[in-house]
């Protein structure tokens, strides 16, 4: 079994299990799920195509420079090295996510993810293909510079995919379990705050897998101002905004600020 096959099998197994969970124990009633799923899955398909085209070249570049990274100069037991590699990749994606919210040019790409007016498991794959490509390039650079072990990369990809699906799921853990789990990993309630239309809440809770990064780097919000059950989901604007049609999602990063503002106010 190839690494890619393993990733795909685990992804769809987790996807199926979480669909059952959000179907049996929905956190909120979704109003536009058919419309949203069609768009989200089309974006997902385009992202998969980008990965399949770009990954072979990036893997070749990574392999060419593989023995030059930081961890290759540190004598660690293989198990510890794999663990450290996973942690380093996780903190790297935390900062990548935070920078995508901070740098206007990068936010143009990432805001496509935040235009989803509701949140469920399909939101986990709602990313513009150019953001997918850029993320793949950033991850490859991190692997090369830090000398991340190949097993760390495989395990982290599996964990990250599962975590992203989990923390976007339209379901809620029991309060006692939520309190414990949130100490370690990002939960749906933790991440839901990040999708709030409140700008301060949207600019918090950047972590994807390990929740500790938000606390260490002072970006943690425990509860929404409106209450966790009343969070308004979408872009941090004064009115709800959703691009009209799949084409607008693909072209959204290239819109001018004035057009975006005008259409937000016009909704």
From TrEMBL:
Annotated GO MF terms? glyceryl-ether monooxygenase activity; iron ion binding
Q: Where in the cell is it found?
A: Endomembrane system
Q: What Pfam families does this protein map onto? A: FA_hydroxylase (PF04116)
Q: Which UniProt keywords apply?
A: Lipid metabolism, Membrane, Oxidoreductase, Transmembrane, Transmembrane helix
InterPro entries tied to this protein: Fatty_acid_hydroxylase, Sterol_desaturase/TMEM195
User: Which GO terms of the cellular component aspect does the record hold?
Assistant: endomembrane system; membrane
UniProt membrane topology term:
Multi-pass membrane protein
Membrane-crossing residue ranges in chain numbering: 6-21, 41-64, 76-95, 132-156
- Domain Fatty acid hydroxylase: from-to ranges: 83-218
- Highest taxon above the source species: Bacteria
An example Gene Ontology biological process: membrane lipid metabolic process
In Swiss-Prot or TrEMBL terms, this protein is called: Fatty acid hydroxylase
